[in-house]
Amino acid sequence: MAIKFGIQIEPQLGFNYKSIERIALEGEKTGYDSIWSSDHFFLDDKSEDRNCMEAWTLLAALASKTEKIRLGTLVTCNSYRHPAVLAKIAATVDMISNGRLFFGIGAGWKKIEYRAYGIPFPLLRGRMDRLEEAIQIIKLLWTKPKATFKGKYYRIKNAFSAPKPVQKPMPPIMIGGSGEKRTLRVVAQYADYCNLWLSPDLKHKLEVLQRHCEDVGRDYKEVGKSLFAFAGIFVTESEEELKDHLTKRSKRNNIPVEKLKESFHKDAPGSWVGYPEEVVERFRFFINLGFDYFQVMFPGIDEEALKASQAFAELVMKKLA
User: Fold this and answer.
1) Rounded to whole angstroms, what are the CA distances from 306 to 4, 11, 23, 150, 299?
2) Nearest CA to 196 among 278, 260, 291?
3) CA separation for the pair 214, 239 (Å, rounded)
4) pLDDT tens profile 205-249
5) What's the predicted TM-score (pTM) here?
6) Could you tell me which residues are beta bridge partners of residue 295?
């Protein structure tokens, strides 16, 4: 099983474009399979002066600057764009990138953004219903000359969408979320990949996904398992560098160093922050659970993130290839 790693970018933290472009270009050189962007409009209610680039515009720009690295949304919020429009946007990015799009989508959750932008925020069941309809519409528009769909929330009639994606029959679809009744069932029905967050019950979540696959007649092995690894992975061989990083991070987050270190060791063997052997141990644990794709996020929004991504590629990725 080939293990793949992608770099996760959170534009809402205040990145400028050139920093992300540099991280993407360097990631392409050092062997990352992909670079991913979250889909948010701002971080919090004090973010009026903090940059937050729009995810799909960002991916289109990166598509024109890179050559090999795949580009993905982790994950785009279905509620923010009509699914027919989103199908067109995504197919365009796939065309610009010559078939490198990874289409990550979810039901949406960040209520503060919905309210600020005047977007209705239904209960979870309604958001999941909309997500399921949206995926069906997007698939139709990507694969059919004309598409008609009549659902409870969305309707299209004799709609056509060109260009079609370069990838045939369509870009791989990743659905983010771990809800056992709905989200993992929708993954089993429609997705190429699931994307989960770290939790103590990851093994159980995968077992639930397997049961949903059995229920819908899908081979569980066909569904890729990806994990959003952690916000702020840092690896070094230097004791002094590690001590300095922990001290700065402790001050930045107003958390004592010891408590910070405990958080890096929670829920699995090894650590998210530390020496190579500790970080490798942690990823091997998840690989043994069945995960084959990891989105990794590094501390900082500029040179700090770039250096951390380079160190991870050299000290961890090469040992897990």
Assistant:
1) 19, 15, 6, 46, 9
2) 291
3) 48
4) 999 999 999 999 999 999 999 999 887 999 999 999 999 999 999
5) 0.96
6) 6, 228
